Structures are given as C-alpha cells and as structure tokens.
Amino acid sequence: MVVGSGRLVVTGATGFIGSRLVNCALSRGYEVLALARDPDRVSAIKGSGLRVEKWSIGDPLPAVDQSDAILHLAAYIPADLSDVRQAAKCFEINTNGALQIVMDAASQGVKRFVYFGSAQVYAPSPHRATETSPAFPVHRASYYLASKLSAEICLIAFGRANAMPVTVLRLASVYGPGMHGTGMVPTFVRTLGSGRSLIIRDGGQYSVDLVFVDDVASLALEAVGKGADGVFNAGSGHACTSLEAAQIVANVVGASQDLITVEGGSDDAAARGFSSLDVAKAARQLDYKPLSFREGIETWKAMTGPMEFQG
C-alpha cells in the first residue's frame, strides 16, 4: 500500500464513492481539497488535512497549484437514463466539463488526472472484459455512458498532447458503506436483514461484477502513488448473479434462504446484466487485490455493526 504525503483534489466529494475516497486519502496522510456543490455535506468527514470548497462542474477550478492529482468523480446522471433529451446535458457536463477541468488543472501544474469512468461501456460478452475489449454502450443508459466514454477519449488525448499523465478507472458496480438506499445490494441487505421476503426478477440471472467501495478508493490512490497511466478495470474480477448475491447476503445476515423467491426469466442478453471484469492489469501494475462479494459484505457488516448495516 502506497502511503501518501502530498496534496489531492477530489471532485464529487459528497458522493458515495467520493466520500470514501476522501476518508481513505486522509487516512494515508494526504492533504485533501474536497470540491462539492454542498460543502456542508462534507462536514461529516473528519481530518486535519481536509479543506472544503464550494464548486460545481462548469465553475473555474479553484487554486490547486502543484497538487499531486485531481481525482474527478463529479458527474451528471439523468433521472431517466433512456431520455434522449438528456443527452446534450450529459455531454456538456460529463465530457466537456471534464475536459475543461483537465485543462484548468494542467495550467496550474497539477501532476496527474484520475478519471472515474464506467465499466458498463463494454459491449455485452460472455467473457471477462479487458481494458481493450470492445466498448459499445447501446444496450442501456446509452447517452450517459457514451458521455463517460467520450470523456475518457478526450482526457487521454489531452494528456498525451500536453504531457499530463491521465489514469482512467472503469468501475464495476460499486457497493459498501455510505451508498444510497436504492439499488440491488442495499435492497437485498435491508430486506433480508429485516426478515422480509425478497422477490428476484429475470429468473435471478441478472449478472454484474460487484466491487467493494474501499477497493476502488485504494486502487485510485495506488494509481496516484505509483504513477500508473492509462485505463484500468476496477471490479472484483468475477460476475455475480442476482440470485447468488441474494443468497450471500442472506447467509451473512443470518436470514433463511426460503425468504428468496425467483420469478420470470429472459432471453435478452442485455437484461442479464454486464460482463465481469478482467482485473489482471490492475493486479500486475497496482497490486490490486479486490475482495470477493462475500468478503465485501462481511467487511461492510463488520465496519458498521449489524443494526446500521441492516437498517
């Protein structure tokens, strides 16, 4: 593990991943400038090395001269991911906004730019997706995911033209403490943890690579500390079906497997989810050792305590 002693800038610092990243960076000895639309929401994060400023994508970047890296998480996610009318705003904020930030950062002498992308840009495949697998996000959330993918391309191109190292992390489905109450994993935890019945759709075959949030934060900091450029997958390395995930959660919270009911089924490959990620590159270059889903759920429970974990 790389122990930091420099200065980092984190955008989207009040988000689920951003807040965990700030905590992880502070614990490693970094000074952190947290940029957030609502600075009051960062007040729960404690650390003598933390400074918070109000900022939104589109605002000029504040003074960050000679920081070791900007870690860019802030993004626009439409409420309706299928609404074509949201496409322009996705590109305005997620692509053009990211490019403006990297230009501002370079002008201030920032040493590295770390961009948090999405592994859902990969075309569906029965095989693990490597960093060179085809990216063609037309099956769901196309306008949002296309804006994230185009940001990757623009950032890497800018970095190469201006001698500014750019690291892209393509994130699998991230879970863990601090995440919002919607979504598959928190729903499973909350429902089974309270002893209620859980109905799983699509025959329980929806499949996704689930990665623990602190593994993502640690990978980002390793990329900064070791100076790794290019694209890296940030997943667990294994796909987990919705049924398998529910069974693991039930086992960890001590719930009966009989509470889980499976309904329906689908022949639509897109409805069955996303490819697992090949994380060999991150393991080789950044000593990445992600937790399995079971290990992550057990760690989450141990960190928060049974009542808060299931609440």
UniProtKB/TrEMBL annotation:
Keyword presence, Cell wall biogenesis/degradation: no
Residues in NAD-dependent epimerase/dehydratase domain copies: 9-235
UniProt keyword terms in alphabetical order: Plasmid
Protein name per its UniProtKB record: NAD(P)-dependent oxidoreductase
